[in-house]
């Protein structure tokens, strides 16, 4: 196997592994729009990275984490509806990033690779970043699994039982931010949320427990990576979108199959 294909496969499998359980919480808590907001803001992080002449992956990670904290603070003020606030931030940060990039005439930027990903361009440094970020998120999810389930099932009851609901919710948002930052290289800014949502939504139909859904989502995501890379290799299609198309195909197939009793 060629090195670039091996790097792409390992990066995609690592991301799919952690996107499964994390995407399950995104589906359960109806946080898809939150993920879209962070993914749109990632492009602003790319622009800041080029402006400061530092790694865009680092600035995207810091930017997504900072935006997650800002969203938690603003949502507690109750001045605006959550979806309105998310819509404003999503489109404002995306547009600001595009405007900032347009002023960088001396820097050649492949904007399409950031918008739609370039999985086959993952190198050793990118792979280390993706594996490290995925490992951090996976360990954090393992430690926070029961508290996250508690606030997802009944947030008020979890608060009565003494759980720090606000901090747990913030931790979940920060984990989503990390995954979006490391996934940008694979599926791009505009397709990141689909990799979190589609496998989890597919697994939800046939799972009997939260753990089954999380594991099923990871397996489906990993299968989508393998199918997407195969399609890209043999048909010369873009790798990131091919992964999402494979995931969408499995979602449709899952809904054609009878639900488990």
Question: What report would you give on this structure?
Answer:
The chain has helices at 3-28, 32-52, 56-75, 82-102, 111-116, 124-153, 155-160, 165-187, 192-204, 210-235, 239-256. With 261 residues, it is mostly helical. The chain is globular and about 55 Å long. It starts with a helix and ends in a 5-residue tail after the last helix.
Brief sketch in words of this structure:
The protein has 261 residues and is mainly alpha-helical.
What low-confidence regions span 5 or more consecutive residues with pLDDT below 50?
none
Percentage of helical residues? over 70%
Shape call: globular
Q: Averaging pLDDT over every residue, what do you get?
A: 85
Query: What's the number of helices?
Result: 11
What composes the largest sheet? none
Q: Write the element-wise H/E pattern from the N-terminal end onward.
A: HHHHHHHHHHH
Question: What's the Cα radius of gyration?
Answer: 18 Å
Separation of the first and last Cα atoms: 42 Å
Q: Got a strand count?
A: 0
- Overall structural class, as computed from helix and strand content, comes to mainly alpha
Strand content: under 5%
């Amino acid at each position: 196997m060629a090195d670039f294909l091996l790097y792409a496969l390992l990066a995609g499998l690592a991301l799919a592994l952690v996107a499964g359980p994390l995407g399950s919480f995104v589906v359960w808590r109806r946080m898809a729009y939150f993920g879209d907001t962070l993914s749109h803001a990632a492009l602003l992080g790319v622009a800041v990275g080029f402006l400061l002449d530092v790694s865009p992956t680092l600035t995207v990670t810091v930017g997504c984490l900072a935006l997650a904290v800002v969203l938690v603070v603003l949502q507690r003020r109750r001045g605006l509806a959550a979806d309105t606030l998310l819509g404003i931030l999503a489109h404002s940060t995306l547009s600001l990033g595009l405007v900032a990039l347009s002023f960088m005439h001396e820097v050649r930027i492949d904007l399409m690779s950031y918008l739609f990903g370039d999985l086959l361009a993952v190198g050793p440094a990118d792979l280390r970043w993706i594996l490290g970020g995925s490992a951090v998120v996976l360990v954090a999810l393992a430690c926070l699994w029961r508290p996250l389930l508690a606030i997802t099932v009944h947030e008020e009851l979890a608060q009565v039982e003494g759980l720090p609901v606000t901090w747990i919710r913030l931790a979940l948002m920060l984990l989503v931010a990390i995954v979006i930052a490391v996934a940008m290289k694979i599926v791009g800014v505009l397709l990141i949320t689909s990799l979190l949502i589609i496998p989890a939504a597919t697994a939800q139909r046939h799972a009997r427990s939260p753990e089954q859904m999380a594991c099923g989502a990871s397996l489906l995501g990993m299968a989508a990576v393998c199918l997407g890379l195969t399609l890209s290799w043999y048909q010369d299609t873009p790798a990131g979108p091919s992964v999402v198309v494979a995931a969408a195909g499995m979602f449709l197939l899952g809904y054609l199959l009878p639900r488990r009793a």
